[in-house]
């Protein structure tokens, strides 16, 4: 949308036989959001209504319905609640809870610099819980960005706008699957290439946003949209600690793990990333010593299977920017460096993916901990 549309003529108007419009509070490319009063429930609500020029477009109306279906199946404190959907009258709109706060994008703009990593971690943890709930319900957000995160009083977070969400059980996914839609600054490589995506695409987008929060800069930036998409596909970001030395090394590892180009090299589920985030919150000096493909667990398998039918294979690739020891096939750690780039060892489950037998792994377990944890 090139310019803001004047919706002042809606002020005081009653729509859906129960919602009295108070004022316009925001506009996007497809819809306008009003503050309104629900005359039945006697509460203030947010009404998201399609722009007038889209009201009669069947494809856009169908996408609008898909958004309402995506949100309606959720019941989570960190996801905006939906109260009503009206698509059979002259106006097509969704009625949601009214939120008093500001978007993360506005908060970062006001701050004009990095957010303290501890505060950023609190916000990211809540977003991860929200995404896990969505993923377990078969929904990929596809457009995680600061504009879609609302910060409320007390540090609470709400994830908004599932308007381009992919629903696995949708009969017609032409509007939501295999299209490079989303905001390019936070878009996963597979999404930028128009490939099939799953829950791990949201994890990549969240990693980009986390990067921006703690450094004050986007991981990839240029004035050309296509150039940014190509950077998402082909280039590695500047390590966050180079931009902000106050970031713990372990936190940098988490961010870069979430931003791996290959989905198999990222966290396989939101809970995996959340557990590592808690580790750094509890001990900011903690450094993850190994980098391996993150093991798929029951939780991650469920998220992947519900958001994508095929299962990717792990792909390893050289990585020389770290100097932490690794274990060879005999269990030796002397003078070794990681030779794979992927996710980190899972300290909460002790699932180590080495190229050795389980028997050797158990035999060498205590030697490993004596080498690095004492």
Q: Rounded to an integer, what's the Rg over CA atoms?
A: 22 Å
Q: What is the oligomeric state here?
A: single chain
The tally of beta strands, per DSSP, is 11
Overall shape: it is: globular
Number of helical runs? 11
For the record, give the distance between the C-alpha atoms at the N and C termini, rounded to a whole number.
59 Å
The overall average pLDDT, rounded, is 78
Main beta-sheet annotation: 6 strands, antiparallel
The ordered string of helix (H) and strand (E) elements is: EEEEHEEEHHEEEEHHHHHHHH
Low-pLDDT parts are 167-180, 309-374
Please describe the topology of this protein.
Elements: E1 14-15, E2 19-27, E3 31-38, E4 43-50, H1 58-72, E5 82-86, E6 93-97, E7 101-103, H2 104-111, H3 117-136, E8 139-140, E9 149-152, E10 157-159, E11 166-167, H4 189-192, H5 199-215, H6 225-234, H7 240-243, H8 249-258, H9 270-282, H10 298-307, H11 358-372
Antiparallel strand pairs: 1-2, 2-3, 3-4, 4-6, 5-6, 7-9, 8-11, 9-10
Helix pairs in contact: 3-5, 3-9, 5-8, 8-9
